[in-house]
């Protein structure tokens, strides 16, 4: 049963994070007029699909990412290549309206052609030898034209529907939208948790045994009104005061049964490991704050937690990058799908609240990692767009394709190594 719960939790976490990220790309792409032939969750063989309008929505077997195919983004490969034999249907202007790649059709007056040259991005044409006269012909592709494959019509994008021909700001928004939606997901999750759990106050709910608070004489129901020289109105005031006092002995004033009492207290210094590469020194009083349910405080709390999570993950990423140059880098610093599954298995046992909190952190991590300036990632492709905006011309297409391909190979190699490392760590 535990195994089944872990599997379901992993599928939900993975599916939500990737879906939100890729939906962000598609949301802005479609508003820029960019055609999106496919929206995929997972990689590898297709296990489920359905078509809505011009987009095919697919779920694929391997839980190692997802993608949105955008027309003219330089990453998609057209299904027709030189040397292939296909059938075409043309209109009265001799423009191709359908390129037929299967036998599941009912078209009449079609022509067979051996493709010699073709261009589905810039020139938008097919040139080849037709069967009926064995002569070489060049056919332009009509504005409304389709690939006919597996009984489905897949529209061929005209220039004004291609990523390549959009303005730099539209490209930037489309690429940045994936990480942006991950950040928004984190915000929504933290705000939702704050509404559900309530926001902490300066009142005491529980006191941990043996803690500085217990040793000082703090009790459940006390309201902290002063810590050292700091007046206390809410939990944030307590956190700020403790961070300044650190582990020095100080005075703690509480309100108990309508009267104020003062105690001596010394916060405890604790080293907390925040990520695999980053630890923080914290000072704890050792109590759990009481909570309240209000209308606006959960929104502020969610914003604060999102910013804190962003700072935490950003610092961890910088530490990881720095470790490459100091020789301290280890693949243990990274988690692939296997590592994420193992973490889900651990976190889900502690309850749904912790799983949601961890998913919020993972969403920030996914957003920030995708903004790294690696060519195959969103951040790397954004650099090309910034170059285009500054110099008023796009990067050389061959150079961009080569750089992105190298980046993709690099990311794939890293993913394989991380996955193998995770398997060795957790299962061998």
Structure description:
The chain has 428 residues and is an alpha+beta fold. It has 4 domains: 2-75, no CATH class; 85-161, no CATH class; 200-292, Pdz3 Domain, CATH 2.30.42; 298-427, no CATH class. 43% of the residues lie in helices and 29% in strands. It is built from 9 helices and 16 strands. It has helices at residues 2-31, 168-197, 212-216, 235-245, 297-326, 337-348, 352-370, 378-391, 397-427; strands at residues 38-52, 55-69, 85-90, 96-100, 111-119, 125-130, 136-149, 152-155, 199-207, 223-227, 230-231, 250-256, 259-265, 268-273, 279-284, 287-292. The strands form 5 sheets. Strands 3-4-7-6-5 form a 5-stranded mixed beta barrel. A 4-stranded antiparallel sheet has the order 11-10-12-13. Strands 1-2 form a two-stranded antiparallel ribbon. Helix 2 (168-197) packs antiparallel against helix 7 and helix 5 crosses helix 7. The longest helix is centred in the C-terminal third of the chain and has 31 residues, at 397-427. The model has no long low-confidence stretch (mean pLDDT 88).
């Amino acid at each position: 049963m535990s195994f089944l719960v872990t599997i379901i939790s992993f599928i939900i976490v993975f599916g939500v994070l990737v879906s939100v990220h890729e939906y962000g790309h598609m949301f802005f792409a479609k508003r820029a007029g960019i055609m999106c032939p496919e929206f995929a969750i997972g990689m590898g063989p297709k296990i489920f699909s359905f078509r809505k309008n011009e987009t095919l929505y697919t779920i694929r077997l391997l839980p190692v990412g997802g993608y949105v195919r955008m027309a003219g983004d330089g990453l998609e490969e057209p299904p027709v290549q030189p040397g292939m034999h296909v059938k075409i249907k043309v209109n009265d202007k001799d423009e191709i309206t359908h390129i037929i790649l299967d036998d599941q059709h009912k078209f009449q007056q079609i022509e067979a052609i051996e493709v010699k040259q073709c261009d589905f991005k810039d020139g938008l044409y097919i040139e080849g030898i037709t069967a009926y006269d064995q002569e070489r012909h060049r056919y332009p592709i009509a504005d409304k034209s389709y690939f006919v494959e597996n009984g489905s019509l897949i529209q061929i994008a005209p220039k004004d529907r291609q990523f390549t021909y959009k303005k730099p700001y539209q490209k930037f928004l489309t690429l940045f939208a994936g990480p942006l939606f991950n950040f928004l997901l984190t915000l929504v999750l933290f705000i939702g948790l704050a509404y559900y759990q309530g926001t902490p106050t300066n009142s005491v709910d529980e006191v941990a045994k043996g803690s500085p608070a217990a040793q000082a004489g703090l009790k459940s129901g006390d309201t902290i009104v002063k810590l050292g020289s700091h007046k206390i109105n809410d939990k944030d005031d307590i956190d700020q005061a403790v961070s300044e006092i650190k582990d020095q002995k100080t005075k703690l004033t509480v309100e108990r049964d309508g009267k104020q009492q003062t105690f001596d207290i010394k916060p405890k210094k604790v080293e907390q490991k925040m990520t695999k590469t980053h630890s923080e020194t914290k000072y704890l009083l050792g109590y759990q704050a009481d909570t309240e349910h209000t209308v606006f405080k959960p929104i502020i709390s969610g914003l604060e937690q999102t910013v804190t999570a962003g700072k935490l993950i950003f610092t961890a990423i910088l530490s990881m990058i720095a470790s490459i140059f100091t020789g301290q880098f280890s693949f243990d610093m990274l988690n692939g799908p296997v590592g994420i599954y193992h973490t889900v298995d651990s976190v889900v046992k502690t309850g749904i609240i912790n799983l949601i909190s961890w998913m919020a952190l993972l969403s920030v991590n996914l957003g920030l990692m995708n903004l790294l300036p690696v060519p195959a990632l969103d951040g790397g492709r954004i650099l090309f767009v910034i170059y285009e905006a500054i110099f008023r011309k796009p990067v050389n297409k061959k150079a961009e394709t080569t750089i992105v391909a190298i980046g993709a190979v690099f990311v794939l190699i890293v993913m394989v190594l991380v996955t193998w490392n995770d398997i060795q760590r957790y299962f061998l």
